[in-house]
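Job type: complex structure
Entries:
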Amino acid sequence: MANATGDSQPGIDRKLLEILVCPVTKGTLVYDKERGELISEKARLAYPIRDGIPIMLPEEARNLDEESSPA
Amino acid sequence: MSVKSRIDEKSVREAYARWAPVYDFSFGPIADAGRKHAVRAINRRSGSVLEVGVGTGLSLPRYGKHLKVTGIDLSTDMLKKARTRVKEKNLANVEAIVEMDASELAFADGQFDTVVAMYVMTVVPEPEKVMRELERVCAPGGQVFIVNHFAQDHGVRGRIERWMAPAARALGWHPDFKVETITGITKLDLQETQPLNPMGLFTMLRFQKPAGEEAADRQSEGKAPRSAPKISGEVEAGAPATF
């Protein structure tokens, strides 16, 4: 019974990924599996996925240009 | 200023964080009749459903198995409860729970056959923006359901509303929110206006998005509202009805 809210794997359902866009630009998102983030290149934002719930809020997103930690 | 006494997003989130533990037992039963009614209507439809403001997921167990349901909310605390509910009840028809702002949805255009927002419009700072987002993510030919309390300040209902006012304020309602705030801004066709029990305190609006036309493209070009009737806080006189 795999649904996107299952927590067995911290990831994101492929079907969900297909319909999600950046809330700011409405542009496509790329899933960064390692960091568990959804990247909007256009908005330069990385939206986190916490406990299996994508947080599609700009104010919760990491700014890709303010990256001080090693890549 | 489109709505009197704007409620900022942060205070809504804080109110909900505070209310999440007791929400199902307080506001829940009062509003539940409306919720049930809307879900029953939605269950006669097919395809995908987006519930905007899914909260703790009270409605989720009621959706038909034939539907594919996605729920969004702004409140992390409530979504956690919703997710637990999905797991405990094994709700295989719930495809996703996502944290989003209803006025800035992170879905591509036209993705859902049915979009429903129950008790959402009065707690968001910009209901007109939310309505445009609901329209946008609704598929051509799809339907948008709104269940809400709309102001009516006379008769028995007026008295009940005054009685409920303290609770309403705690939940961030606009007690003076009128139905025209919704109907005056949408280009969707209003199909049904149904007063719901108890005592017509809540109303269900059902809208249809025209099929197979480029309704979406003007909206997706930008946030600029189409040449829509302007919404002001004052809708008392002069009927802003647009259809």
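Summary: Chain B has a mean pLDDT of 78. The interface with chain A takes residues 70, 74, 76, 79-80, 83, 86-87, 90-92, 94-101, 104-109, 111, 220 of chain B (CB under 8 Å).
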